[in-house]
């Protein structure tokens, strides 16, 4: 690559000048700066490079307009923003929605009950949540598998033993695991909210197969998941009115937490990084001025010595 | 004599005391920096964090 560029632009362009060469030009009457030719070549290279970049960006943007699905609108999430943590009350309500509605079909296999502790539930509450489900365990001393109440260390149980069973129960469609769905779909929580609240009658000409529903936000439009969120489809323990959009918002926030459980830490780290780097920047700025003060205020002159 | 030059003479000149000053300074700097940034975070997100709602569920 470099060789080709060098051949095209002439070897001068890529010549190594050394680190202090630009400074030396400034400070000395002896060295020459860039020639006009080289400046022209370099500017052309810059303009062409920028143009190609802009073209690629424009092409990528136009691809987004080529699909038939609707794009989810951006919602003002409580947790969007550089420093915003998740709304933990909402995450807790979202867990209740998952437990009462989505759990019937979707697994959440990468979330363990212990993950809920000090995020949405107290330790005692999380233990109680775990104890409500039966977990398959074993083999015991006689080699038998058995069921026992869940513990904090158990992962949330899946509704189906395997993918085939899940497909068989859902008209051949597989309800994906929801642990990482928020990161796994374009649009993230906006998409999930739009999907859950966006069901509608199919427009004229769209043919749906048995068990399919129309949702403009789902790629292709025909989704095998029926609308599951209606007003009062789940019950909240904190008394929040359980409207369909409230349920969708809370479960989307919960799924955001499942996908990015480190979100709060990251937001806090942003604050720390800004603090730390601004201090370092101040030091670097001062030090640079300090070191350059002498360099900048001098000029070397070479006087030719005539030979006798 | 200014505080700065006293400090220079008594602490920074000798490697052993200098190293000690660095270690001690790091400790106090880290603690205050951590506490300040954490309290900024908690103030910005008041009402949203688990620590703000846990009193409802603890007995």
TrEMBL record, chain A:
<keyword id="KW-0679">Respiratory chain</keyword>
<dbReference type="GO" id="GO:0020037">
    <property type="term" value="F:heme binding"/>
</dbReference>
<keyword id="KW-0812">Transmembrane</keyword>
<feature type="binding site" description="axial binding residue">
    <location>
        <position position="225"/>
    </location>
    <ligand>
        <name>heme c</name>
    </ligand>
</feature>
<feature type="transmembrane region" description="Helical">
    <location>
        <begin position="40"/>
        <end position="59"/>
    </location>
</feature>
<comment type="similarity">
    <text>Belongs to the cytochrome c family.</text>
</comment>
<feature type="binding site" description="covalent">
    <location>
        <position position="102"/>
    </location>
    <ligand>
        <name>heme c</name>
    </ligand>
</feature>
<protein>
    <recommendedName>
        <fullName>Cytochrome c1, heme protein, mitochondrial</fullName>
    </recommendedName>
</protein>
<feature type="domain" description="Cytochrome c">
    <location>
        <begin position="89"/>
        <end position="259"/>
    </location>
</feature>
<dbReference type="InterPro" id="IPR036909">
    <property type="entry name" value="Cyt_c-like_dom_sf"/>
</dbReference>
<dbReference type="InterPro" id="IPR021157">
    <property type="entry name" value="Cyt_c1_TM_anchor_C"/>
</dbReference>
<dbReference type="InterPro" id="IPR002326">
    <property type="entry name" value="Cyt_c1"/>
</dbReference>
<dbReference type="GO" id="GO:0009055">
    <property type="term" value="F:electron transfer activity"/>
</dbReference>
<keyword id="KW-0479">Metal-binding</keyword>
<dbReference type="GO" id="GO:0006122">
    <property type="term" value="P:mitochondrial electron transport, ubiquinol to cytochrome c"/>
</dbReference>
<keyword id="KW-0999">Mitochondrion inner membrane</keyword>
<dbReference type="Pfam" id="PF02167">
    <property type="entry name" value="Cytochrom_C1"/>
</dbReference>
<dbReference type="GO" id="GO:0005743">
    <property type="term" value="C:mitochondrial inner membrane"/>
</dbReference>
<keyword id="KW-0249">Electron transport</keyword>
<keyword id="KW-0472">Membrane</keyword>
<keyword id="KW-0496">Mitochondrion</keyword>
<keyword id="KW-1133">Transmembrane helix</keyword>
Automatic annotation (TrEMBL), chain B:
<protein>
    <recommendedName>
        <fullName>Complex III subunit 9</fullName>
    </recommendedName>
</protein>
<dbReference type="GO" id="GO:0006122">
    <property type="term" value="P:mitochondrial electron transport, ubiquinol to cytochrome c"/>
</dbReference>
<keyword id="KW-0472">Membrane</keyword>
<keyword id="KW-0496">Mitochondrion</keyword>
<comment type="similarity">
    <text>Belongs to the UQCR10/QCR9 family.</text>
</comment>
<keyword id="KW-0813">Transport</keyword>
<dbReference type="InterPro" id="IPR008027">
    <property type="entry name" value="QCR9"/>
</dbReference>
<comment type="subunit">
    <text>Component of the ubiquinol-cytochrome c oxidoreductase (cytochrome b-c1 complex, complex III, CIII), a multisubunit enzyme composed of 3 respiratory subunits cytochrome b, cytochrome c1 and Rieske protein, 2 core protein subunits, and additional low-molecular weight protein subunits.</text>
</comment>
<keyword id="KW-0679">Respiratory chain</keyword>
<dbReference type="InterPro" id="IPR036656">
    <property type="entry name" value="QCR9_sf"/>
</dbReference>
<keyword id="KW-0249">Electron transport</keyword>
<keyword id="KW-0812">Transmembrane</keyword>
<dbReference type="Pfam" id="PF05365">
    <property type="entry name" value="UCR_UQCRX_QCR9"/>
</dbReference>
<comment type="function">
    <text>Component of the ubiquinol-cytochrome c oxidoreductase, a multisubunit transmembrane complex that is part of the mitochondrial electron transport chain which drives oxidative phosphorylation. The complex plays an important role in the uptake of multiple carbon sources present in different host niches.</text>
</comment>
<dbReference type="GO" id="GO:0045275">
    <property type="term" value="C:respiratory chain complex III"/>
</dbReference>
<keyword id="KW-0999">Mitochondrion inner membrane</keyword>
<dbReference type="GO" id="GO:0005743">
    <property type="term" value="C:mitochondrial inner membrane"/>
</dbReference>
<keyword id="KW-1133">Transmembrane helix</keyword>
């Amino acid at each position: 690559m470099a060789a080709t560029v060098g051949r095209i632009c002439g070897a001068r362009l890529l010549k190594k000048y050394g680190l202090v060469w630009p400074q030396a030009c400034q400070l000395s009457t002896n060295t020459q700066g860039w020639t006009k030719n080289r400046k022209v070549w370099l500017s052309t290279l810059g303009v062409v490079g920028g143009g190609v970049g802009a073209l690629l960006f424009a092409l990528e943007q136009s691809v987004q307009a080529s699909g038939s699905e609707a794009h989810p609108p951006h919602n003002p999430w409580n947790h969007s923003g550089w420093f915003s943590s998740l709304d933990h009350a909402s995450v807790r309500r979202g867990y209740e929605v998952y437990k009462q509605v989505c759990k019937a079909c979707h697994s959440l296999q990468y979330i363990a009950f212990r993950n809920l502790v000090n995020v949405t539930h107290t330790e005692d509450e999380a233990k109680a949540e775990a104890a409500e489900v039966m977990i398959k365990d074993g083999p015991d001393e006689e080699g038998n598998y058995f069921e026992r109440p869940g513990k904090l260390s158990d992962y949330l149980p899946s509704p189906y033993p395997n993918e085939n069973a899940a497909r068989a129960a859902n008209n051949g469609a597989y309800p994906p695991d929801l642990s990482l769905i928020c990161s796994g779909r374009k649009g993230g929580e906006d998409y999930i909210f739009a999907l859950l609240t966006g069901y509608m009658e199919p427009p004229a000409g769209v043919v749906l197969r048995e068990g399919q529903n129309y949702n403009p936000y789902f790629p292709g439009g025909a989704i095998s998941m029926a609308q599951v969120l209606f007003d009062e489809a789940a019950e909240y323990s904190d008394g929040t009115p359980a409207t369909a959009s409230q349920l969708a918002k809370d479960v989307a926030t919960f799924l955001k937490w499942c996908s990015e459980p480190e979100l709060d830490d990251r937001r806090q780290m942003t604050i720390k990084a800004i603090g730390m780097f601004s201090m370092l920047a101040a030091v670097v700025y001062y030090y640079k001025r300090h070191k350059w003060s002498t360099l900048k205020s001098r000029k070397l002159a070479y006087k030719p010595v005539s030979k006798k | 004599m200014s505080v700065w030059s006293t400090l220079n003479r008594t602490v920074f000149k000798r490697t052993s005391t200098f190293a000690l000053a660095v270690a001690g300074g790091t400790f106090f700097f880290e603690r205050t920096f951590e506490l300040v940034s954490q309290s900024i975070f908690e103030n910005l997100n008041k009402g949203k964090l688990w620590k703000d709602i846990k009193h409802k569920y603890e007995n």
